[in-house]
Amino acid sequence: MSQLKAVDYAAASPEVKAVYDEIKQTRQVEDVNNFWKFIAQHPPTLARTWDSLKDVMAPGALDPLIKELLYVAVSVTNNCGYCVASHTAAARRAGMTDEMFGELLAVVGMANETNRLAVGYRVPIDPAFE
Amino acid sequence: MSQLKAVDYAAASPEVKAVYDEIKQTRQVEDVNNFWKFIAQHPPTLARTWDSLKDVMAPGALDPLIKELLYVAVSVTNNCGYCVASHTAAARRAGMTDEMFGELLAVVGMANETNRLAVGYRVPIDPAFE
Amino acid sequence: MSQLKAVDYAAASPEVKAVYDEIKQTRQVEDVNNFWKFIAQHPPTLARTWDSLKDVMAPGALDPLIKELLYVAVSVTNNCGYCVASHTAAARRAGMTDEMFGELLAVVGMANETNRLAVGYRVPIDPAFE
Amino acid sequence: MSQLKAVDYAAASPEVKAVYDEIKQTRQVEDVNNFWKFIAQHPPTLARTWDSLKDVMAPGALDPLIKELLYVAVSVTNNCGYCVASHTAAARRAGMTDEMFGELLAVVGMANETNRLAVGYRVPIDPAFE
Amino acid sequence: MSQLKAVDYAAASPEVKAVYDEIKQTRQVEDVNNFWKFIAQHPPTLARTWDSLKDVMAPGALDPLIKELLYVAVSVTNNCGYCVASHTAAARRAGMTDEMFGELLAVVGMANETNRLAVGYRVPIDPAFE
Amino acid sequence: MSQLKAVDYAAASPEVKAVYDEIKQTRQVEDVNNFWKFIAQHPPTLARTWDSLKDVMAPGALDPLIKELLYVAVSVTNNCGYCVASHTAAARRAGMTDEMFGELLAVVGMANETNRLAVGYRVPIDPAFE
Q1: Cβ atoms of A91 and A71 closer than 8 Å
Q2: Mutating which of A100, A116, A121, A123 best tests the F interface, going by the most F Cβ atoms within 10 A?
Q3: If you average pLDDT over every residue of chain B, what do you get?
Q4: Domains held by chain F: number
Q5: Residue C128 falls within a domain, yes or no?
Q6: Is C120's CB within 8 Å of B84's CB?
């Protein structure tokens, strides 16, 4: 028996269905992604994660495209294959062009490099940054 | 004897001084940050890193503020104290407000959380994202 | 020629077979997992890792279920696909229920989120925690 | 001017004070930790994080001590100094003994080691774990 | 439409072809690896990364075999599947034997373990190391 | 009361003293580093870690200097401040020159950068590396 279990809409509890419905309506999509179907194995995690993401990713001082770019940057740094795939797609839907994607990964690459140079050379924080 | 060694301007070789001068002129600052003074222990690393950063962080399809926000996101995820301090300061100089900073860290936090949920639930990539 | 090489029981040296036999007897299993068959390419690593794991995972002040939950938490945080799969299975054998698994991942997710908030806001350690 | 800014109770907005009051009452403490005072710079993050943590860390299928042990395991793996300090203290308050702490770190250490062995030897997932 | 896009030699721009040609000549290979074909989606990243790698991996105070061993060590620690596969192959071409590979992974494993013990026990730096 | 506790030689149990004595004799040092004094809070971890490190770091197919370089590379990638400081010192004692250190960090930096490029561009493994 597979240990990988998605909760499909048809088989979902009313509690889970309500979250799926809200995701579908908010994002204007036919079905929810695998991410939601898998975390729905634990309904409180599904509900809490959706509530939090809905708030955090909403337009604010940063617009949704920038927020998706940040999500990709973190997901790449953490090496999360699913997250890179899904948030790259989300960023493209939000307006990310090929050129933006290229620059995004260039920044992420350089940041990961210089982060390690700073650690390896044990650079003390400049007084101006304290 | 301390193992932590900065290369100050006065003691720098002509090769290192030339890089320092270019950084100071490009960024319009009085002196270079500790990061540069420490990696200057290995002059080829100093020159290569500056050349790369200058190109990667220049305005392009993404503007400098967005690039600095991405730098902070990676540095926070990697837990690099020096980098968080220096790039938060750089992002503020590029226009990051308190509200933007709050939203940036909220996105970084959520991305780190959902990255692990995706891994823990072993979520397979949706065909649409391949 | 594949670079991926498992050392199967039949082809194993007496030294490796002895470790396999001990694992099979201790864990009451028919065959050892791929993990052991791959690290057996370097017999000293096989022997040392088994000796260490046997001691560390034995019942003590923490019972084996808790230890497996901790193993899953670390493996998820490190994004190790093999380790998440094998230790989730091990945790289930040790008594982890679906509900426990859901709460485990919820804690792991929140810890990864708040770890980054603490780093991003550069929170100084409270004197009470020193 | 320091870039590190805590929001103390006296200077907090009513919205922030309300969260502080709930934390103090729930945890029966005189004052909130620095973590809360720093993330209070962005009130929505303060409120959302507290709401989530309150739910996730509540007694459930896993008791609070196990949840704190998991928090320490993740924080150590992520190398978050503040989080290791604060959650080690929290785990001790929840009942963690010196012996438990020693075993916890031994498991965390071994998990980090074997995670890398699995990656380095590129171990394929056993069919039984799929 | 697949989101995964390699830039093959035949379809490459003159700018990209020039980098491919230099890689093929320097490394004496028939074709470039997938790594180069994918980052070629952003030509400035291709050119910059090749220029940097060519310099950094050249023989110097450390010989190429040692540099490849270091690359494997970092790639394993970061859990980058592609990088582990490609740099393990590169290290073998540079002279890494099975025994060296076994010892390399043993060191990487132990370093990852003791890194976490140092963090978990919050070990202060010895004055002699400052 | 401080939560940071070193086990000094004078106050150590005979079991811990025996390990300290072996470390001092093997390494020809006057006293053991803080690392050992802190993990000695859990004597089985002290004994097991020393036994493992003694074996893993001994001369073999890789010489001690290369092993220390690998240790630094992992410690920098994991951002472990204590480990970077102590293993940089150990590598210098084993013969690492300033030039080697510069090249080591350059490789570590580039590896961290290209690891993320490979993940971000979702590069599939070349058949030749399987």
Answers
A1: yes
A2: A116
A3: 96
A4: 2
A5: no
A6: yes
Q: DSSP for B16-71, please give it.
A: HHHHHHHHHHHHT-SS--HHHHHHTTSHHHHHHHHHHHHHHTSSSSS-HHHHHHHH
CA–CA gap between residue A4 and residue D130 (Å, rounded) = 7
Q: Please report the pLDDT score of residue A3 as a whole number.
A: 66
Residue among C4, C44, C129 minimizing CB distance to F55: C44
Structural domain range at position C77: 60-123
| Nearest chain A CA: its distance from E45 CA (Å) | 6
pLDDT tens track for B69-100: 999 999 999 999 999 999 999 999 999 999 99
Domain CATH number, residue B87? 1.20.1290.10
Return the pLDDT at E79.
97
Residue F115's pLDDT is: 98
| Residue that finishes a domain, picked among C36, C56, C76 | C56
Q: What is the pLDDT of residue C120?
A: 98
Does a structural domain hold residue E127? Answer: no
Low-confidence ranges of chain F (pLDDT < 70): 1-3
* A-chain residues near D44 (CB < 8 A): 55
Alpha-carbon distance E64 to B88, whole Å? Answer: 37
Q: Do C105 and A3 touch (CB under 8 A)?
A: no
Q: D16, D37, D56: which is the final residue of a domain?
A: D56
Helix/strand/coil percent split, chain C, to 5: 70, 0, 30
C1, pLDDT greater than 90: no
Find the mean pLDDT for residues A1-23. Answer: 90
Q: What is the pLDDT of residue A1?
A: 44
Same structural domain, A45 and A77: no
CA atoms within 13 A of residue A3's CA, in its CB half-sphere: 22
Q: Alpha-carbon distance A47 to A36, whole Å?
A: 10
